Every structure is written in C-alpha cells, then in structure tokens.
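User: My collaborator sent over this chain with a note saying "see what the structure looks like." That's all I know about it. Can you take a look?
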Amino acid sequence: MHLRVSALLAGIGLSLCSLALLAQEDNSHGRKYKAPPLSAHIEVTVLKDFNGKPIGNAHVIFHPTEGDRDKGSLELKTNDEGKAIIDVIPIGDTVTLQVIANGYQTYGQSYKIDKSEMSMEVRLKRPGGQYSIYKNSGSTSGDSSGSGSNSGAGSSSSGNQSNGQSQPQPK
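Assistant: Without extra context I'll predict from the sequence alone. Here is the result:
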C-alpha cells in the first residue's frame, strides 16, 4: 500500500513538473513583449482671440509623424472649458495640430513632442475679408458704355460690335 501511494505521488509530481516546463517553452517560442514607447500628456486649450473665452466643441486634430512616416490622425473635440487632452502620442514624434471651429479661421501648426507634459494654447480669429485681384469698378449693370470691360472692341477679328449685340457675319 505504501508503494502505491508513493507511485501515485510521484506520478502527480511528474505531471505538475511537465506542465510547468510546457508553460515555459510556450513563452520562449512566441514573440517577445515590446513595451510601448513613453507617451506625452498633451493639453490643448482653444480660446477666442478677441476676448479670451473658451471655444467648446471645436475639432482638435493631431497628425503624428515619426520621421517621414505618417501615423494617421487622431481627432478630439474640446469640452465646455475649451480643453482637449490626449495621452497616446509618443515622445519624440512630430505632430501637426489642426483646430477647426465654426465661425473661426482654421489653425494649423507643427510641434515636436519632446516632453512628457505639454500644454498648447490656440487663439482662433474671426474670418477676415476676402482678398481679390479684381477691383470693384463701381459701374452699374445698365451701363453700356463698355468701360471696364474687354468685350473685344477694336481689333477683334470676329466682327462683333462693342455694344454686345451679335451681328450676322458675311461668308
């Protein structure tokens, strides 16, 4: 009887040892764990330029790049205090920050993420006037003198008159 108990205990001990060895072997043949890079805590505050009040619900878009490799984009919206916080961009990356809000000019700037804690303040301006190379001549639509327009008067080979009416052409 003593021999049977000893044999049983030896069998259980060998089984447990073999299971432990199998568990160790599985880890040695798999991929090695690589810890993710350290990431920065980035806080962006979006304010109105003219009065310094926060802009809520503004789109804050991060375009991180590592060297020449684009790593996609991440988009957040600001809270009621005008803040957007992100914790997943690795230290050492360059990020292009873009801020879009209704009724304000779009903001864009590139930043080098070189610290574990960064805060950025963005002041958005109201849209400005449109720039144009064309001047408002001030002429009314009923003015038929042709001033300010190049309707082909003078050296036109098509024979059209400068008053805007088309004439039949001789053949």
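A starting point for your reply to your collaborator: The chain is about 15% helix and 30% strand.
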